[in-house]
Design goal:
Elements lengths: L1 H20 L8 E3 L8 E5 L4 H12 L4 E3 L3 E4 L9 H16 L1
Antiparallel strand pairs: 1-2, 2-4, 3-4
Helix pairs in contact: 2-3
Length: 101
Amino acid sequence: RKQDEKFEILKARADRVKEVVADPKYQDAFEAYPFNSGYFMCIRLKTVAAEPLRLHLLNNYGVGLISLGERNLRVAFSCLEESDILELFDTILKGIGELAT
């Protein structure tokens, strides 16, 4: 069934996001809130504000995220290819480093 196929694609993307954000290299910059295999997940930023980071990532890297409050970013992983997930979070980390300096 097509519905089962779509579910498996989204589940694989969610599993890959969970695997990537568990990497200790991100722990000083952000942490992931718990999420399921839906469409979105959120991270809590530890060192920079969400809106300036959102604008920096959009303007410099073409990465579109949604800021929620002072320290949270929402990531729509449902529209990412599984192979692009690591690059996205590495770009977020890079942007945090650029704003923190």
